[in-house]
Amino acid sequence: MARHAAALRGEWAVVTGASSGLGREFAVQLARMGMHVAAAARRTDRLETLKQEIEGSCGTRVTPVTVDLSTDEGVRELHRTVTDAGIEPLVLVNNAGFGLHGGFLSIDWERERSMLNLDIVSLVHLTRLFASDMAARGRGYIVQVASIAAYQSAPRYASYAAAKAFVLHHGGAVHHELRGSGVSVTVVSPGVTATEFQEVAGQEPTLYTRLAMMPADRVVRAGLSAMVRRRMSVVPGLLNKVSMAFVRLIPRSLAARAARAMMR
Question: What is the pLDDT of residues 107-162, one digit of tens each?
C-alpha cells in the first residue's frame, strides 16, 4: 500500500460525514498518509476538534466545511466551497449517511426520506460534481461507503439496505464507465462497525452485532488499501467476506430470514 499511497502525499481529499465514525477515521488516516483534508459535516465543534488533532499530529491542513448534505443546496455548497478555495481534490470519500432500524410501516417518513436523500441522492450528486472535475484533470479516486446490507434484503433495515444496494451497484457501474479516465470508484461495504451507527439507527445491540463488531480503523485501512489499488469493491473483515459469500449461495428468501434473525 505504501508504494501506491506515495502519490497521495501533499494532495487534497474531501471527506463527508467527517465529524464521527468512519468519516472521522478516513480523515485521520488520509492525513497520516500526507493528505490535506476538506472535512464536511453538520457539527462544527467536532470538525474544529478534528482540525486541531490532525494539524497538531500530522502537520497537514484541514479545511472544515459545516454543511447539511441531505439537501441539493448543501451538496452544491460543499463543491462550491472546495472549488472557491482553490482545492483540487484527488480523493473523494462519500461517507455521509445513516440508517434507520424498525418496521417499514412504523418508521417516520420524514426521517426515512432524509435518509434516502443523504444515502442515495446526495451521494450521486457529489459523485457527479467531483468526478467531472477529476476526469477533466485525468486523475482521482472516489470511495463510496456502502454496507454488507447491500448484498441482501434486510428486514427492519429495509430502506437502508436497499439504499446501500444502490450505492454498491451504482459505484460498480461508474467505476467501469470511468475506465481510461484516470478516475476510479471503490465501494467499501463494512459490516457491523464500532461507530455511532447503531445508536443513530435506533437498534439495540444483539449477540451477532457484538460478535461481528470491527474497529473503525481496520475498516478504513481495508478501504484505503483497495482505493489506492483502484479496486472496484471491498468487504472488510474475514467474517464479513465469508458471510457475503454464503449469502450468494442461498435463496434470497432464506438470506432475508437469516438477516432478520441475526439482528434480533
Answer: 999 999 999 999 999 999 999 999 999 999 999 999 999 999 999 888 889 999 99
Cite the active site residues: 160
Phi, psi angles (nearest 5°) of residue 61 = -90, 150
Nearest to 71 by CA among 117, 127, 124: 117
Distance between CA 258 and CA 235 in Å, rounded? 19
pLDDT higher than threshold 80 for residue 174: yes
- For the chain, the domains span 2-262
User: Which residues does residue 92 pair with via DSSP β-bridges, in sequence order?
Assistant: 14, 142
Average the pLDDT over each of 10-14, 84-88, 127-131, 245-249 and give the range with the smallest value.
245-249
pLDDT > 80? residue 25:
yes
Mean pLDDT, residues 210-214 taken together: 70
Q: What is the CATH number of domain 2-262?
A: 3.40.50.720
- HEC string of the chain? CHHHHHHHCCCEEEEECCCCHHHHHHHHHHHHCCCEEEEEECCHHHHHHHHHHHHHHCCCCEEEEECCCCCHHHHHHHHHHHHHCCCCCCEEEECCCCCCCCCCCCCCHHHHHHHHHHHHHHHHHHHHHHHHHHHHHCCEEEEEECCHHHHCCCCCCHHHHHHHHHHHHHHHHHHHHCCCCCEEEEEECCCCECCCHHHHHCCCCCHHHHHHCECHHHHHHHHHHHHHCCCCEECCCHHHHHHHHHHHHCCHHHHHHHHHHHCC
Task: Please choose, from the candidates 201, 198, 187, 232, the residue with its C-alpha nearest in 3D space to the C-alpha of residue 94.
Answer: 187
Answering whether pTM is above 0.85, one says yes
